[in-house]
Design brief:
about 160 residues; Helix Hairpins
Length: about 160
């Protein structure tokens, strides 16, 4: 589970990374006019697609860190057989969950023609959808189509951006 300190670190690190890339890729003419004129300003526009990408990147980084921790357990000579088995099972579960998230994301894209971010944790599924339409009917339809993929009851939340 990710704690608040790690979440803040990842958020700030991502922001610094994005700003660094933006600064590096900025045309040099813009930098010269910006530094010559103190009154000029630079405006950065972000889109919903960018926020979905940031959510996906943060989720991937979190999973990557979990996988690295589990690999360390597997490669550790002092780990017991039970610990190694548990670590391997968790790695398989992470891979399975990532595959299921991709499948659900493709399903939403295919059925509703909407970009989305999906995060599965145990029996909870969080869906963030990029849509101008914020209707209960659309949210219910998305929930139903996701629930069709599971035999057991899942707690599904849909958020629009």
């Amino acid at each position: 589970m990710i704690n608040k300190q790690k979440l803040w670190f990842l958020t700030l690190f991502s922001l610094i990374l994005v700003l660094s890339v933006y600064y590096i890729t900025m045309p040099s003419d813009l930098l010269k006019t910006s530094s010559d004129n103190d009154t000029s300003s630079i405006v950065v526009n972000t889109t919903e697609e960018d926020s979905l990408s940031v959510l996906q990147i943060m989720s991937d980084e979190e999973r990557l860190q979990q996988m690295e921790d589990l690999k360390m357990i597997l490669n550790n000579v002092d780990s017991t057989l039970e610990e190694k088995n548990n670590a391997y099972e968790k790695m398989q579960l992470i891979k399975e969950t990532k595959g299921k998230e991709s499948t659900l994301k493709e399903k939403i894209k295919k059925e509703y023609n909407l970009d989305s971010f999906i995060k599965i944790e145990n029996n909870q599924i969080k869906v963030v959808v990029e849509s101008n339409e914020h209707s209960y009917e659309l949210a219910n339809n998305i929930i139903r189509s996701i629930q069709e993929e599971y035999e057991e009851k899942m707690y599904i939340s849909v958020k629009f951006q």
